[in-house]
Amino acid sequence: MRTVVVPGAVLVHAAVREAPRAPPGAAWRLLFRCMPTVAAPTHAVAGAGQVAAVWRERLSLLLESTGEGIFGIDMAGCCVFVNRSAAQMLGWPADSIIGRNMHELIHHTHADGRHYPEADCPIFKAFRQGLPCRIDDEVFWRADGSAFDAEYTSHPIVEHGVVEGAVVTLVDITQRREAQALLRRTNELLESRVAERTAELQASAARLRELANHGETVREQERTRIAREIHDELGSLLVALKMDVHWLAKRLDDRPPLQCKCHSMGRLIDSAVDNLGRIITDLRPSILDHQGLWAALEWQAQEFFAHSADGHAELQADLQITVAAGVPPPEGGQAIAIFRIFQEMLSNVARHARARHVQVRLWVDDPPEPVLYLSVRDDGVGAPPQALADARSYGVMGMRERAGHFGGRLTIDSAPGQGTRVRLVMPLHLDPEAPA
Question: In the chain, what's the furthest Cα-to-Cα distance?
Fold first, then answer.
């Protein structure tokens, strides 16, 4: 004896012999056999036993208490039972559904208005082929002719190896579809706005890069002008002054103190000329204009190695330059950008690395689309990644901007105590810009 409580029903005590757990679908088979008159209880089979009546009542309460629509069909596709939720979804009185062909009643047409043949109906396939199914992309039709999005499952009812029909559960998913459509529209709108904003930011970044490049071009032009004026004006004056002092010293043989002073003045003038040449070279190295980028890079590396020392120990230098035959040095803005990036690489080594060994590699691919690879590696103190990514690392930022303007890429590999490697990869333009 055990107590069975059915929601919404009177407490019923029934003697039930414990039996092994029923296989899946057994409950539906019991329902199918016992519920031919759930929608019309007045048509109950006369003489049915008390147990069958109790189970009909319980199953009826179960069907009526669920929010899902449930109906059963026989092998002809006609409805043999339907619960209240299904009748309300479909807009038909329950009595009007019993005995009707359910495909012709609620599933006769696709959402786009095309006829839906009964042979293609997944519900009918469930019992005719013995295959369960779950569908969530079709519509059912109400009594008033309107359609609603439905999710339904169809399970065949098999008794003693024979399919007797199918049980169908359905849910109105119109609100879900509307929510999905709203979400999809919202996502599309958001993606559209993000795309527009991204395009605006990219355009703004491109304009800023163009502005920065224009500023660099103007600065290089100004450097060239200043270097030329210093060379022409101050250089000429110092040369003239040197000649005058030399002329004066030759006429003071009888006055050694004054002649010694003239020689001292001459040495000062020579030092001024050397400093002036260094300033002119820093402003605009003439070798870049006269001999091209490859010679300018080699000269810059040799100058760096010659003037870099740590205490009394010379910096160990390793320089290799390999340029494929037939690749002319780039000119104009690209040549200046590569040269200034290289200068900044060496400057960072001198200021921060405290290195004993520096390796410089320059190689250029074969034409017709040559690519320049420039690498500077040191064995110095290195730097943490966050220092290189700092917004105030203007030198690194400037190198990357110069490289990016000409389609290049600059990468830095560094770690504390493990040295630093800076690498520039840039396609060379055989049709260069006008000289900066």
Answer: 156
